[in-house]
Amino acid sequence: MQLTLTTAFAISAFLPAISAHLIMSNPKQWTVPTVLGPTIDLDDGMQNPLKSDGSNYPCHGVPPEGSVATYQPGSTQPLQLIGSAVHGGGSGQMSITYDTNPTKSTRWGVMTSWEGNHPIQAAGNLDPDAAHVLPLLSFKVPADLPAGKAVVAWTWFNRLGNREMYMQCATVTIGGSQTSKAGFNALPDLLRANTNNGCTVPEGVVAIKYKNPGPQVIGTGTTTIACDNTAPGTGTGSSPPVVTTAAPTRSTSFISLTTLGVPRLAAPSAAAGACAEGTIICTSTTAWSICAGGNAVPMGNVAAGTKCVAGQITKRDNRLTHERRRHHA
């Protein structure tokens, strides 16, 4: 996405990047550095979808050295998303792989599919002047998964707007003592689309009816995707999906932002690794994090023309900015 300095400043309205799309705060997604060029090339970022050319499929970002969570087989785990551009909802999946450095040939096994009203039910986008903490979702970890380090991925096909595929990944550990891979092999393939792979999810699809949705299905799909060539799981572990009809949810919890900056919320806790939910944390004058789930989630650089100081994102001094531009011209 190429933006000039003036255009980026006008569109952002001084808002940090979180308001643009969605991030996954729990499990904590991989850190995605923001690449800035001469014209403020927002090449990638924590909240961005995958590139349409598929060059950064499957997991954009840098994996952590360790796991961010441990999941016991058979348990139900939280999925927390933050952002305002929900694009009228859509459909999504939660998948897993034991390839800790996934490539384009990595096989993903689907654990949960949300068919419609995902991540929430909405007519379009939410208030762009707010960073919404969306209603908490959950997914079930299959009971027969093998133990070990793994990567889970939340994928989403938005109903409205550009044809995009969102994919946020997190490194986790699956507990227990299972060594057989039969449980993983029984999971169906992940649906990939909108990433230059010959498959596109059309705009306006309210609820995708996945060809192979996995063992847990939330919602009722109505539209099949013609290019869905996913394969079902293999082996004796395969079983019919359990369908749950969940009431659509709307966002009710959000961090209010003002046009000229972010009001300072509670200060971060002094406890190691802890912070107050929703707190803006300035890692420098140009980079920031947000507290979600008790952890500081890196959000990359602040919007053009702004700075992050003492828990607030505010407009930079125009005179200073002008002098710097003139000096470097």
From TrEMBL:
Q: Which residues form the signal peptide?
A: 1-20
Keywords assigned by UniProt?
Signal
Q: Which organism is it from?
A: Discina gigas
Give the protein's recorded name: Lytic polysaccharide monooxygenase
